[in-house]
Amino acid sequence: MKAAVIVFPGSNCDRDVAVTLRDVTGQDPRMHWHADPDLPEDLDLIVLPGGFSHGDYLRCGAMAAQAPVIAAVRRQAQRGVAMLGICNGFQVLCETGLLPGALMRNRDLTYICKDVHLKVVTTDTIFTSRYDPARVVRIPIAHHDGNYVADLPTQCMLEDEDRVAVRYCDAAGRVVDEANPNGSTANIAGVLSENHRILGLMPHPERLADPRLGGTDGRALFTSLLEALS
Ligand SMILES: NC(=O)CC[C@H](N)C(=O)O
């Protein structure tokens, strides 16, 4: 599986995801600086990592969405290349319009860094096929702008097209308000593109993909990708 990780000024999870990709796939991803407009044509996966691109100035992900590499990212998205945006990467994908909706300031206006429980809504994707839909997953979040907002027609479209990948839930798997850390619409934590080949995810699966880090619930996302894209 040939993967590239796009690095923006202020990315801080690029190496974490590179370590996880190497660990799971046995191959080093290509680290690609945002100012380089040319992406290799033979990629299976493009990762937009977490962090604080351009210091989160203007709006999280807004300046990164104008980077020289983004034209190539758009072209590859059109060709159906798989893409994973984690946290700031999700924000960048929304700012580019490759995913619908927006990520606004957290409901309580605070930065939240903690483990949350997640329900994998659909396992019929290249990102989630290795998850057991009956199991509640525990993965960390770390953001101040993770409040996913979409208008009603967009919400209906996401539901109708099975494009909500993951929702915040409680330890028992109940999707309830009390389990919503940031005020996201309908507890949405992860959204798929129309062709289901692009996933934007607010939690950080790469931070819990090794038992030495305290858990492995994030790992199945990468093993799912390896299975689908190799
Ligand atoms: N962990 C991250 O990627 C942080 C995302 C973003 N800069 C925020 O705080 O909302």
From TrEMBL:
Cellular component aspect of the GO annotation: cytoplasm
Active site: C87 (nucleophile), H204, E206
Molecular-function GO terms, alphabetical: ATP binding; glutaminase activity; phosphoribosylformylglycinamidine synthase activity
Ribosomal protein recorded as keyword: no
Main location (coarse class): cytoplasm
Pathway the protein contributes to: Purine metabolism; IMP biosynthesis via de novo pathway; 5-amino-1-(5-phospho-D-ribosyl)imidazole from N(2)-formyl-N(1)-(5-phospho-D-ribosyl)glycinamide: step 1/2
Subcellular location: Cytoplasm
Oligomer and partners: Part of the FGAM synthase complex composed of 1 PurL, 1 PurQ and 2 PurS subunits.
PANTHER family on file: PHOSPHORIBOSYLFORMYLGLYCINAMIDINE SYNTHASE SUBUNIT PURQ (PTHR47552:SF1)
Function per UniProt: Part of the phosphoribosylformylglycinamidine synthase complex involved in the purines biosynthetic pathway. Catalyzes the ATP-dependent conversion of formylglycinamide ribonucleotide (FGAR) and glutamine to yield formylglycinamidine ribonucleotide (FGAM) and glutamate. The FGAM synthase complex is composed of three subunits. PurQ produces an ammonia molecule by converting glutamine to glutamate. PurL transfers the ammonia molecule to FGAR to form FGAM in an ATP-dependent manner.
Protein name: Phosphoribosylformylglycinamidine synthase subunit PurQ
Gene: purQ
